[in-house]
Design brief:
about 240 residues; nine-stranded mixed beta sheet; Rossmann fold; alpha/beta
Length: about 240
């Protein structure tokens, strides 16, 4: 049984709907919450069989690159970039969402754009028919609650784009995947993020309504996304994953 180390940046944002998919495949996950007292970023050597970098609500990362000043960088940014870089060098799988995707880009010599905090519930479009072993849907829900934006390095493969033709899903190397949104985002996560922080996006009512309506589509798309993601990261042998008919 394999185990993922999951770096959480806020109590409100977690794996969400992905938890059931990992548990169903007998993939364990351990949350690390460095925003709580006495918890620190783990040494790369003790990272499990893979690293998950979650989103961060209003936290950003644009100040983590030379010549840029982020409005509100997550306090553990520098240490997380080093951990992600080490995992890339060791060939460990990385799955990153939102702020996590920004950290992945910084670790892979990409960048981050300064951008205001936004909450959007829309759709992304696949740009590579072979993305995630062909399992990434042609069109799928794309929910973002994020400050700043990841800029993948030139060598990254762009697997999907959002409605503004910006990277929505990208691949770095063989086993690292960044999602500008969260494919397993739940309505309760958005509500908790709004309640947890004094700062929130200018628009919340509209995306909450849209998110409520697309609940079934998120669940359906996640079945395919997780099948391909688990196969591509090697977290479970493809011969053991029976969900493709």
């Amino acid at each position: 049984m394999k185990t993922l180390t999951v770096l959480q940046h806020t109590s409100a944002e977690y794996l969400g709907l992905l938890e059931d998919h990992f548990e169903g495949r007998r993939i364990r996950f351990n949350y690390v919450r460095p925003f709580t007292e006495g918890v620190t970023i783990p040494n790369p050597q003790v990272i499990g069989d893979g690293l998950v970098l979650l989103g961060g609500g209003p936290w950003g990362s644009a100040g983590g690159q030379v010549g840029s000043a982020g409005a509100r960088d997550v306090p553990t940014l520098e240490k997380e970039v080093l951990v992600a870089k080490a995992c890339l060098m060791m060939g460990k799988p990385i799955i990153a969402f939102g702020l996590g995707a920004q950290i992945l880009c910084l670790a892979a010599d990409g960048g981050v754009e300064v951008a205001p905090l936004v909450f959007e519930a829309g759709f992304a479009t696949r740009t590579d028919d072979e993305a995630l072993n062909g399992y990434l849907p042609a069109r799928f829900p794309h929910v973002t609650y994020m400050r700043d934006r990841p800029v993948p390095p030139d060598y990254a493969q762009i697997l999907a784009v959002d409605s503004h033709n910006r990277p929505a899903v990208f691949q770095i190397g063989e086993k690292a995947f960044g999602f500008t949104g969260h494919p397993g985002f739940k309505l309760a996560m958005a509500e908790d993020l709004i309640m947890e922080f004094e700062e929130c996006p200018e628009e919340t009512a509209k995306p909450i309504s849209e998110l409520r309506e697309m609940k079934g589509e998120i669940e359906d798309a996640l079945v395919s996304i997780m099948t391909g993601l688990v196969q591509k990261t090697g977290l479970m042998d493809s011969s053991d994953d029976k969900s493709k008919s």
